[in-house]
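Figure 2 data, in text form.
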Amino acid sequence: MSLMLQHVRAAARANRLANERLHVAIATLPAEAFHAPRAGFFPSLAKTLNHILVIDRYYLDSLLGQGPLARSGFYAFVPADDLASLRRRQREVDEELIVFCDRLDEAGLVQVVHIDRPDRVDRDLAHRVLAHLAMHQTHHRGQVHAMLSSAGVKPPQLDEFLMVSDAPFRVGDLAAAGWSEQDLLGVP
């Protein structure tokens, strides 16, 4: 298996684990804190997490070859009103992304993806769309991280999922997901 395939598969799993850590931290807050106004591009935990969810769905649908469905799904998106439903829906999308990445082969990495926009159709290679998606997720999870700090919750560490040296810090995360180090990193 190529290094690029190993990377996209590990990154998809790291994405799920990072989302889980954030959701666990947010669950320690009172329910009303989910919608409380906060500093950020999307000014609440709910709005920021729903943005991550809808964009994940949009790009995953595009990667799956469902361009027009991706755009219509984006406009029809109904935000999750509480953390429990958001967490469930995010986990479903995260799992779909993992399955997609696990099914990718070398040819799939360079497959042209059609991204249906309101005024055009963008075309790019799957590996670049996946890289963009990972950057988008990281960008907005960082905003949630800052919001947690301002809410008085110690934000979780979100970057302990890809390096071998971080293995001791992710033991509980892997156990909760039912994964081994091999499952996460895709290496013997």
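Caption note: The domain at 3-185 is CATH 1.20.120.450 (Four Helix Bundle (Hemerythrin (Met), subunit A)).
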